[in-house]
Amino acid sequence: MKYIVYDGVLRHTETFFVRSTNRAFRFGDGLFETIHYHKGRLLFWNSHYDRMVQGMAALRFFRGGFPLKEELEAQVLDLLVKNRVFNDARVRISLFRRGEGLYTPDNLSCSWLIEVEPLNVKGYQWSEEGLHMGFYIDFSRHFSPASPFKTLSAQANILAGIYAREHGLNDAYVVNGKGRFVESVSSNIFWMKEGALFTPAVSSGCVDGIMRKEIIRLAKAEGVLVMENQGATEEDLLNSDELFLTNVISGIRWVVALKNQRFYSRVAKVLYERLCQAISIS
Fold it and tell me: Cβ contacts of residue 163 below 8 Å, gap of 6+?
């Protein structure tokens, strides 16, 4: 990546720097979106933009000067071309409050930064191997007006990622303040039990995932009973028939191992196939 877009202006990465007084650096005062670029378009772009706007409202950002949906999309697509990225890519749009101040900001308006990174896969790929998962309980997520969004403060997810790496795991389940597992390092979580598909409700403290919504829609279209709850206990997950994770970059990833339990991927594979069909005709 040679170029980024900062407040609508194309800049070379070598000339861009963040001041020590930047509120994203000092306080994590912002949020971000991660978007999958595929075959010339931003997948689920309307949903991503809507979540950004809702997140800005939750964090009390002033929207004046922030691009409209079509304008921001054009900035992203132009940046992809400028960086000569023509296949799948990860797009990150970071939003943070301008100005300085201490905890109380002296400015509520918003800056935005667009970055792009090529992906080494096309579309969504299915892995026959499955994930090895663990439980991370030392740092919890809590429900708040900001928890449905991807804020710049993601300590629970960061520490869960470190835990997974240190223990030779692919990912780890993250707990909320009530002791229920509500997401993983970078994904929403689902589990099958006796024909029903379970997933934590947004009120449990998990991110209101874009792919989460799509998988719920696809599952219901397949006639699967979908039930949202306040998160999973360790026993819920260990006694499940099937486990999988979802996010917009990877799509669906199924879990083969959790502690001493082993799992299969019948429903996850069907939903993966429906997802691939959906993005090919959307």
Answer: 134, 136, 138, 169, 172
Q: Is pLDDT of 282 > 60? A: no
Q: Taking residues 143-150, what's their average pLDDT? A: 96
List Cα–Cα distances, 196 to 103, 174, 228, in angstroms: 45, 22, 10
Strand 181-184 relative to strand 261-262, pairing: unpaired
Please choose, from the candidates 219, 254, 258, 256, the residue with its C-alpha nearest in 3D space to the C-alpha of residue 238.
258
Distances from the Cα of 4 to the Cαs of 8, 23, 110, 231, in angstroms?
9, 19, 17, 38
Q: Given a cut of 60, is residue 33 above it in pLDDT?
A: yes
Question: Does 213 reside within a domain?
Answer: yes
Nearest 5°: CA angle at 174, between 216 and 231? 50
Structure token pair of residue 254: 């199924």
CA pair distance 170, 108, nearest whole angstrom: 39
Tell whether 60 and 176 lie within a shared domain: no
In order of 40, 59, 156, 161, 192, the CA distances from 30 in angstroms are 28, 8, 17, 21, 35
Nearest of 236, 211, 234 to residue 134 by alpha carbon: 234
Summarised one tens digit per residue, pLDDT across range 219-235 is 999 999 999 999 999 99
Quick one: pLDDT at residue 155? 94
Domain that holds residue 54: 3-118
Claim to verify: residue 109 and residue 140 sit in the same structural domain = no
